[in-house]
Design a protein that fits this description.
Distance between the termini: 54 Å
Strand content: 25-35%
Radius of gyration: 15 Å
Structural class: alpha+beta
Helix content: 10-25%
Order of helices and strands: EEEEEEHHH
Shape: globular
Largest sheet: 3 strands, antiparallel
Strand order of the largest sheet: 1-2-3
Length: about 110
């Protein structure tokens, strides 16, 4: 692994990955790995599932950005997909409910 792909810390160098939502680089342990099983996006919290992984912050804003940009087909290198990805397990992990209404201001 190239030196530029590592982050210097107090201990040994640690691998970094790019969040598919916000596109920022972070230490791999700060991100959740996702894998594709058919057309379902499955969180791989242990990092042991086979296949190509995509990384995402455990943050609602990053998930929403990933959905808005339709990143799953590119991240998993699966043809010109579209909106056919089942992300319900990712939503459950992050705590996003589909089509959350915007928060109303308190008065």
């Amino acid at each position: 692994m190239a030196r530029r792909d590592m982050v210097a810390g107090d201990g040994p160098d640690r691998p970094t990955r790019t969040c598919v939502g916000c596109r920022s680089r972070a230490v791999q342990s700060d991100l959740v790995r996702m894998v594709a099983e058919g057309t379902a996006v499955i969180p791989d919290v242990r990092g042991r599932r086979p296949g190509r992984g995509a990384y995402l912050h455990d943050d609602r804003r990053c998930f929403e950005a990933a959905e808005r940009r339709r990143v799953w087909s590119r991240a998993f290198r699966r043809g010109p997909g579209g909106d056919g990805w089942d992300v319900s397990r990712v939503e459950a992990l992050i705590g996003v409910t589909p089509h959350d209404p915007p928060a109303s201001p308190s008065r």
